[in-house]
Amino acid sequence: MSSAIPSLSSLHALGPAQQPTYPDADAVGAAVTRLRTMPPLVFAGECDELKDKIAAVARGEAFLLQGGDCAETFAGVTADNVRNKLRVLLQMAVVLTYAASVPVVKLGRLAGQYAKPRSSDFETRDGVTLPAYRGDAVNGYDFTEASRVPDPQRLVEVYHASAATLNLVRAFVTGGYADLRQVHTWNTDFVRTSPVGQRYEQVAAEIERALTFMQAIGADPDEFHRVDFHSSHEALVLEYEHALTRIDSRTNLPYDVSGHFLWIGERTRQLDNAHVELLSHIRNPIGVKLGPTTTPDDALALAAKLNPENEPGRLTFITRFGAKKIREGLPHLVEKVTASGIEVAWVCDPMHGNTFEASSGYKTRAFDDVIEEVQGFFDVHRSLGTWPGGLHVELTGDDVTECVGGGEELAEMDLGHRYESVCDPRLNRVQSLELAFLVAEMLRKA
Predict the structure, then answer these.
(1) Per-residue pLDDT reduced to its tens digit, 364-374
(2) Between the CA of residue 379 and those of 73, 142, 327, 392, 424, what are the distances in Å?
(3) In 3D, which of 233, 257, 223 has the Cα closest to residue 45?
(4) Total domain count for the chain?
(5) CATH of the domain at 348
(6) Other C-beta atoms within 10 Å of 34: how many?
(7) How far apart, in Å, are the Cα atoms of 349 and each of 97, 185, 206, 424?
(8) Which residues in the chain land under pLDDT 50?
(9) Residue 269 near residue 149, CB atoms below 8 Å
(10) 138 lies in some domain
(11) Residue 257 domain-assigned?
(12) Is 142 a domain residue?
């Protein structure tokens, strides 16, 4: 792996997909120059720590929980919003840790998830065609000509919004908010007050007994009161990721200090693509989304390019097949990658292969499809003797109505009540916790 960072112009010469078309080159240059002077959002040493944790996931000694917004918004950077997302992830992690009997690596899909790939460059409404919304990093959500013009100054705003989010997260996880007793109390409340929660009384009671036992013998390790929490986002807008790629003073190696973990999307994972090229040079732990069109040879070639030294914890394959295709498509990938001796963590994204349009026109996902894809992921790994390493979920800590089904039995007609996502539908607080308890049952069998 070369320590030289390819130039931005050489990356653009590769014809990268999913990039904004900026009308003013000088404004782009000014934004990139400004970003190059900004302090790191994360530190190289933290990225190395996360890499070690993901190496444990690849060995089957830990489980990864990655979750957060489909697309963060600048308006969403509030203490309440960040706290609610963090809270639901911590609640899920406690249940999964108990069930798996291994540490759960907590990775937020936050503090950088402001850009989105789109299937079309344009959107038409009532005969008016405008550029598609590509996330707050690129343009505005409002359907007006002025709002939809890509503005590179927004990349500087992404930096500030991410810094504010990380400050809040760090304050919460070290300031007592992540205390294990406290998190378990929230779960107990969920089980007691939610009609769907009562199904999970037994697991909650077992965790309660375990905590009471620990207290009785005087065990009170530091880990009970604080957690390690890392940030992640899709590395999409090349100007932003390149400007925040820095040479680490300890090792003289390049790290993308915009987040601890970066991933390459299904639409930008072509081997000769600029995104694969850039991420092949940084030392962060990285992921690649693999959908149903991925062949085993694609996966092997990506591993060779992105992790030529086969470094443990460096590479995560995030599979997104859809509930109907996972059992058929995943085994070939896992078998061939495992047989070739590649060190990789396998993580299931049960969201992106299961999106459909409801009769009301809203994009949605069915909770049952999400569960079915996770079950398929576990079944495939169990049959092959490999470790189902984790979950990558779009979720929010709020009581939104974006995905149908679950214990609350949200119907398509309910979607309009609180549909707040600017892009893809997210699991709400209750659905997220229900997912954690159901996956806990799968983990105990695995």
Answers:
(1) 999 999 999 99
(2) 36, 43, 8, 17, 27
(3) 257
(4) 1
(5) 3.20.20.70
(6) 15
(7) 19, 28, 28, 13
(8) none
(9) no
(10) no
(11) yes
(12) no
Provide CB contacts within 8 A for 246, sequence distance 6+: 40, 254, 255, 257
In the prediction, which pLDDT does 221 show?
85
CA-based R_g, the chain, Å = 21
Q: What is the pLDDT of residue 196?
A: 84
* Separation of alpha carbons 104 and 93, rounded Å: 6
Q: Which tokens in the block code for residue 118?
A: 């789109």
| Integer Cα distance of 294 and 286 in angstroms | 18
Q: Cα(10)–Cα(74) distance, rounded to whole angstroms?
A: 31
Looking only at Cα atoms, what is the longest distance across the chain? 70
Q: Tell me the C-alpha distance between 118 and 300, whole Å.
A: 26
411/416 Cα distance (integer angstroms): 10
The token duo for 98 is 């108990």
Q: Say how far apart CA 240 and CA 302 lie, in whole Å.
A: 23
Match 């979750």 to its residue by tokens: 67
What was the pLDDT predicted at 229?
96
Of the CA atoms within 13 Å of residue 274, those in its CB half-sphere come to 21
Distance from C-alpha of 247 to C-alpha of 250, rounded to nearest angstrom: 9
397 in a domain, yes or no? yes
Write down the residue that tokens 């097949």 correspond to. 321
Q: Quick check: helix, strand or coil at residue 304?
A: helix
Cα pseudo-dihedral 333, 292, 436, 441, rounded to 10: -50
Residues 6 or more apart in contact with residue 126 via CB below 8 angstroms: none
Q: Which domain holds residue 107?
A: 8-116+153-178+226-445
User: Which residues partner with 68 through β-bridges?
Assistant: 394
Structure tokens at 130: 């405008």
pTM above 0.70, yes or no: yes
Tokens of residue 119, six digits: 């299937």
pLDDT in tens, 134-193: 999 999 999 999 999 999 999 999 999 999 999 999 999 988 888 888 999 999 999 998
Instruction: Map tokens 């000769």 to a residue.
Output: 272
Instruction: Tell me how far apart the alpha carbons of residues 374 and 109 are, in angstroms, rounded to a whole number.
Output: 19
Strand ranges for 16-99 from DSSP E: 63-68
Helices (H) then strands (E): counts for the chain? 13, 14
Say which residues have a Cβ less than 8 Å from residue 180's Cβ, sequence separation at least 6.
94, 211, 223, 224, 225
Written as one letter, the residue type at 282 is: I
d(CA 294, CA 204): 39
